[in-house]
Amino acid sequence: SDVCSSDLCRQKIHSPKCRGSRKSARKTAYFHALGIVVEWKKRNDKSELQKQFGEEYEMVKNENQDLLNNVRHHIQNAFGNDISSDEFISPDGDSVTIVSCKNGMQPGVTAHATLGVCLYPKPSLQQGEHIAHEFIGVENEDDDIVREILSTCAYCVMDGMSVQPFSCWANLLPLYMPKSKLKHVFFLPAYLWGDKLLMSNFENITVFYLLVCPLSDKEADFVSKFHDNSVGIKNLIEKMEKKKAYIFDFNREPIF
Predict the structure, then answer these.
(1) Residue 16 has what pLDDT?
(2) What is the rounded average pLDDT for all residues in the chain?
(3) Are strands 110-115 and 130-139 parallel, antiparallel or unpaired?
(4) End-to-end Cα spacing for the chain
(5) Residue 30 is inside which H or E element, if any?
(6) In this structure, what DSSP letter does residue 64 have?
């Protein structure tokens, strides 16, 4: 089968027209109640959900905040420097938090990570355990494109789209880079930080951190020729290194 999935998130694509918009008049917090993802709007009076679940409502909300704090701490330890955070807003008003660290890897390089996708876990093969993800991106220039791409990846998962290491989503990048030959996003374990940012555990949730990398049509075809995407991408990275190209660089030219 082809390396790229043709399905894309249709409802919450972060439009380039929204670039730079990071403040929302509508603050929301997402949490899990009885296994269902619901939206809680902050207000002065008690919501119907609060009245219905009472103490359980507050307990679940607090557990989610503990998970977010745990993930943020893990990201900051890996990035090495102080991190800043911004909100990116979808056209319908939902927000995604992106945390960033300048010069943590090397001078002139900024690393970004989503914060909050972990609140949308899915059951793992092990009973009672769940798997969640956060997205990582790297850029050499100070612009919003990488953060916008990460926010769109986050919205897709929030809308129910599946993701896993060594998978690919097709034709996402033309939304932000219409003139580039790099069209698809491929998800790698965040190997740039060694084993510091591969995964973290919080109670019954394992969070995997995925490095978002761009691929061209021919590069995606190259990966798909191998029996396993992980083998194909390893061979592609080796070819890129010989040409002094980096798979995670959104400004690079395709090697084929």
Answers:
(1) 32
(2) 79
(3) antiparallel
(4) 21
(5) strand 28-33
(6) H
In the chain, which stretches have pLDDT less than 50? Answer: 1-2, 6-47, 49-50, 57
**CA dist 90 → 17, 48, 94, 204, 234 (Å):** 10, 26, 5, 30, 34
For 130, other C-beta atoms within 10 Å of its C-beta total 18
Helix (H) or strand (E) holding 207: strand 205-216
Distance between CA 14 and CA 88 in Å, rounded? 8
For 140-178, what is the HEC assignment?
CCCCCHHHHHHHHHHHHHHCCCCCCCCCEECCCHHHCCC
- Taking the complete model, does pTM exceed 0.90, yes or no? no
- Let me know: does 154 contact 160? Beta carbons within 8 Å: no
One-letter amino acid of 63: E
CB 200 within 8 A of CB 241: no
The CA distance from 209 to 35, in Å, is 23
CA of residue 93 relative to chain centroid, distance: 18
DSSP state string for 93-138:
S-EEEEEEEETSSSTT-EEEEEESGGGS-EE-SSTT-EEEEEEEEE
Q: Which two tokens stand for residue 104?
A: 């943590």
Note the pLDDT of residue 63. 78
**Residue 10 has what DSSP assignment?**
-
